[in-house]
Amino acid sequence: MKYKYNGSIMDERMEVFLESFLPDLPPYLEEIACVSEENHVPIIRQQTRKLLSFIIKTRNISLILEIGTAIGYSSLCMAYDNDVKIDTMRKCITE
User: Fold this and answer.
1) Hey, which residues does 80 pair with through a beta bridge?
2) Nearest CA-CA partner of 15 in 50, 58, 42
3) CA of 44: how far to CAs of 1, 9, 84, 93, 95, in Å?
4) Which of 55, 44, 53, 47 is nearest to 9 (CA)?
5) Are strands 85-89 and 63-67 parallel, antiparallel or unpaired?
6) pLDDT tens for residues 12-66?
7) The whole model's pTM is what?
8) What is the DSSP string of 4-46?
9) Which sign does the torsion angle of CA 66, 39, 8, 47 carry?
10) 89: helix, coil or strand?
11) Which of the residues 3, 51, 55, 80 has the least number of beta carbons within 10 Å of its own beta carbon?
């Protein structure tokens, strides 16, 4: 059987499993996602968000270093419903 890439990082069974494990996002994160899409600001994909949250929960991760952040959406997602401390770094160009 030839594998056809559908743009997903995981198969449908894994996504259904993660959906059952993780809570829905609060309205403020949904709003940030909408605003970032309208303004063409890249944010973490939902499947990646679900996978990271699952890893954070199951591995009891408490410290995270995020390198590269646009508006902080992925940090907010990782912090939501997880007891973690997140440090972020990004390159700032000053003129």
Assistant:
1) none
2) 50
3) 31, 12, 18, 22, 28
4) 47
5) parallel
6) 787 777 777 777 789 999 999 999 999 999 999 888 888 888 899 889 999 999 9
7) 0.74
8) ---S-SS-HHHHHHHHHHSPPPPHHHHHHHHHHHHTT-----H
9) positive
10) strand
11) 3
